[in-house]
Amino acid sequence: MPEHTPLLSVRDLKKTYQGASGPVEAIRNITFDVRPGELVCIVGPSGCGKTTLLKCLSGLLPPTAGSVTLDGAEVSAPPKKMAVVFQEYGRSLYPWLTVRDNVGLPLKAQGVPRRERLATVERALAEVGLGHALDTYPWQLSGGMQQRVAIARAVAYQPEVLVMDEPFAAVDAQTRADLEDLVRRLWQDLGVTVLFVTHDIDESVYLGERVLMLSSSPTVVQQDLAIDLPAHRDQLTTRAMPRFTELRTQVYEQIQRAKRGEAVPADA
Ligand SMILES: Nc1ncnc2c1ncn2[C@@H]1O[C@H](COP(=O)(O)OP(=O)(O)OP(=O)(O)O)[C@@H](O)[C@H]1O
Fold first, then answer.
1. CA nearest neighbour of 209 among 228, 224, 196
2. Would the keyword Nucleotide-binding be found if you checked this record's keyword annotation (predicted)?
3. Which residues make Cβ contacts (< 8 Å) with residue 37, sequence separation at least 6?
4. Sign of CA dihedral 77, 60, 160, 86
5. Quick check: CB of 43 below 6 Å from ligand 1?
6. What are 194-217's pLDDT values in tens digits?
7. Is the pLDDT of residue 135 over 90?
């Protein structure tokens, strides 16, 4: 696919829920494209419709109007080419299966032959630094390690798009920094397209090549900001750069505007 052709295309997406006391307009109008191999962060105030957007993107919820297309095909059910990593790793792994079997499960469901499956699982676990934990159970691992298993499962599936829904919200700060670096490394090593949802402004700037800022609900895209930091990022030097501070200030100001319900200024 040529570089300029979008892999994922969201057009005039609207979602209105039928609530108990009448319609709830969650998403007013969202339009954006993601090119193959991009790493895009989506950030917005609490309740702005991030989960609703992800459910529409991943084919779990039909939009009220508008469309989502992946590789030119309209998404109306969970697409094979997409893997999703959720915040709640504790609930996404099966406690009675070993790490090896948890990671291999989607491949087994797809009918991948055993020998190939085991090799792919071992490679994916080595990628996330858990090559030694194949025969352990999720409950024997720390929260950060469990989230690495969930990431390995998504990677083993070899998706074209990896969607991550606030995946590090439940881990401590040090583990979170390690996992952020893991996502950057996997993105660079595997060339996968990543859509990363977070409400952490610093995280969105540190990780993203682009940050999409959402308004408060009913949601529109408040700003689409290119992150022009060097490709090689590390927790100490990148976060200490003056440009990092400028970018985080821009995102912070937009989020504050979004919370106050103000539109984006014309020169932004
Ligand atoms: N099933 C539903 N029925 C009615 N309204 C809903 C439903 N699900 C979400 N909403 C409303 O839609 C809006 C967006 O909700 P959503 O959960 O997508 O936001 P969010 O950005 O993921 O929130 P948070 O950051 O707090 O996780 C909110 O006003 C919410 O109350």
1. 228
2. yes
3. 191, 192, 193
4. negative
5. no
6. 999 998 999 999 999 999 999 888
7. yes
Ligand 1 mean position, distance from CA 217 (Å): 8
- 17 alpha carbon – ligand 1 mean position (Å): 9
Q: Are 161 and 190 in contact (CB under 8 A)?
A: no
Domain annotation for the chain: domains and CATH numbers: 1-81+160-268 (3.40.50.300), 90-158 (no CATH)
DSSP state, 263?
A: P
Cα(223) to centroid of ligand 1, in Å?
20
Among the residue ranges 1-15, 30-44, 93-107, 243-257, the one predicted with the least confidence is: 1-15
Neighbour-count burial of 28, counting CB atoms closer than 10 A to its CB (0-12 exposed, 13-18 middle, 19+ buried): middle
Mutate to test the pocket of ligand 1, among 42, 64, 199, 217 (most ligand atoms within 8 A of CB): 217
**Candidate of 14, 15, 17 to mutate for ligand 1, largest count of ligand atoms within 8 Å of Cβ:** 17
* Minimal-distance CA residue to ligand 1 atom 25: 46
Q: Nearest-CA neighbor of 186 among 132, 242, 228, 127?
A: 127
CA of 63 to the centre of ligand 1 (A): 14
Residue 13 pLDDT exceeds 90 = yes
Instruction: Answer whether 181's CB lies under 8 Å from 188's CB.
Output: no
Are the C-beta atoms of 181 and 146 separated by less than 8 Å? no
Report which DSSP code applies to 267: T
